[in-house]
Fold this sequence. Notes:
Number of strands: 25
Largest sheet: 4 strands, antiparallel
Structural class: alpha+beta
Amino acid sequence: MNSKTYNLRPNRHSSTIVHQEYADQNISSTQQPLNNRPSRHRSKNKQNSNLHHSSSSNRSDDDCHQVDENNPTTPTDSDDNTHNLDLILHPTLAPVAFLRTTPHDELIGRRVLMDSARGVFLGTVHSIDIVETSPIFQINYDDAQGSDRLTLSMLMAILLPTAASTTSFYQSPTWVHCRKVYNRIRTLLLENAFHPNDRGVLAQVFGYKQPATITSNNLRKKFNDLSRKWHSDKIGLDSPPWVLYVTKHTLLALRFLKESFQLIQGTEEPSVDPPALSEFPAYRTESFRNACGLSAEIPPLSQDDEGLPTEAPSNNNSNPMNNNNQTQPNAAHNAQQAQDNPGDSFEYVDLFPLSDFFISPFQVVDIIPPSLASKWARVFARVTTRLIEAINSNEPNNRDTKIATALRWYGALPQVFFRDNGRNKERTHRILEVRLDQFLGGEFSMVINHWRSDRMKRMGRTIKSRKEIKPIKKAIDLVYDGFISRATSLLESFGRTSCDIPAIHQQMLAKHPQFNGLWDTIPQREDGADTIDLSHIHAVIHELDPKVGVGTRNFHADHISKLLDGRMTDPESCSALPLFIQLGVLYLNCTIPSWARILLGGGLLTPLNKSPPGIDGVIDARPVKAEDSDTSVWCKALQRAVTDRVRATVIPQQLGVGISSGVQLYTTGLKLKYEEAKTLDLSRILLTIDIENGHNSFDRGLCRRNIISAVENDPTLAPLLLGLQATIGNPTPIYTRTDLDPSGIKYLCDSSQGGGQGNALTGPAFCLTIDSTLKETETLYPGIEVRAIQDDITIFGDPLLIFGEGKALSFITDSLLANAGCTPKLEKFKVLGTLPHSCDNKPAYVKQPSVQHLDPHSGVITSYFGLEVCGTPIGEDGFIRDWLSTESKKLSATISTMTEQLKNLDLQVAHTVLHYSLQNRSDFILSTNLPSQTLPFTLELDNAISKAYASVLGPELLSNTSSDPDYCNDPKFTSDRFLLKSSQGGGGFRPLHSHRAPFLNCMHTVLPQALSIIDRNTNIITFHGLWPSLQSILGEDSFHPSKRDSKWQYFYNSGSRYGTELREDWLRLQAQRQALLATLSPEDNLKYSNHGPLICSPESFGGGGDADNTPLPLGKLHKSIFDSLQTLRTANVTHRALQLPRSDPRRMSFLSSCQDKFSNAILKAMPTRNILFSHHEFQEAVATHFGIPSPICHPVLGQRILNNPKCTQLRVDRYGYNLKTITGATGDHIRTLHDNIVATISSSLSNAAISHRGGPYRTCKDLFSHLIPQNLCEENDRHLQGIIPDLMIDATRLIPFTQAESLQGVISLVDAKTLAPGLVYSEHSNTKPNEAVEKRSSAVNTQYHRHAHKLDRNLHHTAPGTLGIIEQELNTYGHSGRVLGAVVGAFSECSKDIYTIRDLIAHCQALRLTDHLAMDLTIASGIFKHQLTHHWGLTFSRGWARLLLQRRRDLLQHGPASTPSPRQQPHHRDNYADAFLRHRRRPRFSRPGPPPRRA
């Protein structure tokens, strides 16, 4: 037999070890010089040796070589009669730092385990002696039990792995020691030699070299030491069952020996029974498996059992990786294959536990760089191909083994390739590429070794409690990342808690009731109706949220998105997405074995606080569970494919499946039915039914039965049944985060009841499960209407049919429990009656909510009844108004509190949240309640939002008065301008009472869905109505296309308040339109009077926006209405602006910014970390944008501005214009602004890889210097000043495109200019947007050519009418020598040349992006235009604000009236301040590049 050993050689490139086999079988390893032994297998890459773990030729640990104590220099042969000693290491143990070829000194201090006939002894390598050129190692045993001298080969047989290489108890040397003692006890029991009074027995078991040295004290100490290592509290209850069994019974036997010996010594009596042979079955036998409680389906434990905890049964105290409910592959064969093969084999992963690949302890890169999309797709395709081949394999004896190998790779894809080691972004991306390249190059062991090394470091770390980041800080970061909704949800939530808290742990277990039943295998249908359809997967992937939570594998959404969006360059990468879809089909049609589906389908649960902790510290939490994105996407795609069929099955009772605005239809329909019954004086009740943990607790067996019944009626539902078999047919594990385990994850329980929380198939499954109950209730009790949104169920009808024994309420509660396994929560049942006596016979457990109002005049208390359904009130007016009043106070408090929290840290973030989120909070409430009821609600919220805007941006914006007596014309101009869209120069404020119509939009969207539409020619129903009984209110066939002109007529005439107020709401909007048209000029009035959706009559609204009344899609009406009104408002404000004085800052600012995207970015752009505003900078930028007085100039109004006495002397004005325009000032502030603009453009050109000069790095100063006579060196700079451009852009090598034509094919010169507010803005001709900057831009080219002509004439004496050499050189640039004028105005508006440069950069960046992503070039270019517009716009606005702040600081006299000395200047700090600032963290203000160089 060939003997194998480890040769662990150092490597410069990786911490690796190389497996070698001795070439000469007849020569013992101890008979050859260590460095001259030949090897049969060599690494393919000598510089990158690979790690190979190997076991000892499939021998048991109990058969390892022993040392003859009588002749310690000679090894004793083991059962296989080989003379070569193997390194006894389990294949799943981490690499050990033992090197055959390293200096032997490195072995000093290593631990050894000697298993001899006299006992099991632990020791340490103490020293090395060289005897006849061979090393001899001195081993000192613990507790002064003597020593041994061993050769190298003998040491290899007993050397233990290093402690740093262990990841858990069952992969540690301590576990090896425990098993040795277990086997020794079994041997003694077999030989009937287990006698506690025999010191020899104690010596063998406890590890004493000299039995005579045993005393009660040192025996107790020995036992306590072993208990600290082996006790279940120390090793963890989540260890595999066989580990818990061995440690438990070994410690019990040791306790018996210790206490029996102490009894002999007269100290204490044994507290445990003596061990029995039946309690110590042979390791890895059938009896041992039974003793451990392993399932009969689990194969016998193999040599690598402790490395594969997948063989353990499922229970709440064991790792669910062990719960497969089906025989899992035993990795022993594959592990041996990996050991026998060279290192770079795909099967190399079999050396490591399966669980390690599905529990990731790492943070991973969740957004893959586009440049790596193709390589990632190739890696994914290669792994998935192997997995699919294994799944489709026809080898029954080897199929599971192959699946396990490929599944290891697939499960570990995120952590193996995308784990984040905490380096900077660029370096991390380079490391990711190296890992992908290594895999594609076949260096599998290297990839795995590095992963394993990082995993060991992670698992060996000291566990520290997570530092909770303050919610406000985390929310601000989310806003900067573009996730506003997540940020607001975080601020409104009560945070998350931890399952490490016992009470929370029990709450989460209670939310997931356990049941051991499994689904029987569903046979394949012969008609093919159960074919899995994933045709919607592309749309699902496009809609993925990159920040959505994932499971234990860390398979993020973008990991899948890149398979779709990446630009694939070869057939292998192109196959990645089809393979992903194919794997999803195999997953959902149950072709993948159940044990593998269980591993893939595990979820990660996070407990969230429902409310703040109580006074007594009690926390109530709710669970939120996430699956990994691959299984989630497959289930979502299948759910979309079956939604139409599920909806057709469960309507009209269930409105929660695939129905647009289903909740609005649900609540509106109930309100209409309630109103109709009250109007007709009918006794009716509305009863709400609550189900306890509805989606988490329904019975899966009953669910299967009900869906099978549905499939019999509609075979197209068969794919859903098959998908549910794949996802909930077997219990799937649920994990949660923990601070008690280095991995950060621990097992909670199995999901064995209800559907998977967060899984897309759970909703349809639940609806089909309860569907028969809802339909039978209506069938058995005619006149009763049952409606539901998922588990929110209501019954409406005659109380005589609902209350009482054998009535509808009794039937539906009993049926929900019997037919669906759903437990009704009786204490949460609520009822509302239409008449005072309607609820007289209600059961005692049913509540009847009401509110009481006290009349202050009469002192009478009146009760108003109602209830809340899906977040909207239904009932009497008094109840609804009270509910709305309460909600308005809550929302107002939320707006105020959140705004104050955010603005104290980041004013721009506060505005963004207010603008994009907080002012839209009430849409649902306004859409489901009457406008007359919500009027006080809207006024209170408008007031709260107005105060929030005033707090963030300043009170001037929404004031109806002017604070400047010089410009008091049209005092409402600014407040009306603020109501315009931010893209049209406004502030984007939308008052609820005037700029919104959610009720009208809701009626237009949901009511047409209530009634069926029948084709009158064929009598075929083309649309099945969702609430047929509403036809008595809406009118039969009212929404048929033929009745488009009168579709609302019947509703208006029905007498319903909803119809009346709907008509009034439409007339209100038409009145707004007429009022706006009246303010326009005759030309504009004629232009807009015949267009827009509001030209329709109230009876036919919902038509088109032109005279032909073309119908609009549902959901587009509201946008169409208010877009048309905004157009009129913009025209109105523009007309009013032209009526203001030419010097009015409001006029100048509006005409400059109303159509300029750069200027409007200040309120439209999302915050970015690259451009951070201080509090004063943001408010000043906003004030400048709207032309209102400067907040920072108000305290210093009228102060003299310090400048050169020879220049014009100015004082501070209200708007800060004098500070911006003053000449002769020190500080170089204008130059700083100018250089910042140039640096920003230059940085963007560099990012787009566009060749250019200029900016902070490469000056353009020498472009014309060779044309200036050198004998005028002192005057060279003066002559060149007027002809040195700021940028030179080389576009000669760029691919031509339709935009930025003035830059294409030429080398262009660009001169950047700033335009301060001055006469150029107030000239009479400035009546068009951006006219001032365009005028300045056109002057740039003229000035350059004029200066070139002047230089030719003065320096080269060029004759009049002749082109000189300088002007000729200038004409070689651009088109016909045109110099581009990049002008940034005082309101951050920009000239067309800046737009041209932006378009060029966006196009080049889009070209680079589309090299890696499969994206349309036009779309990509639009994205970059948007980014550049916002980035530059914010930079320019901040630059002007900083200019004003710096000049206020440096050019005003602070303190005494005397002129400050240079030492007292504001920009000079004393030494103490300098020292203080040097030791502070740098401010978070970033720049687009290094500081601009000064001339």
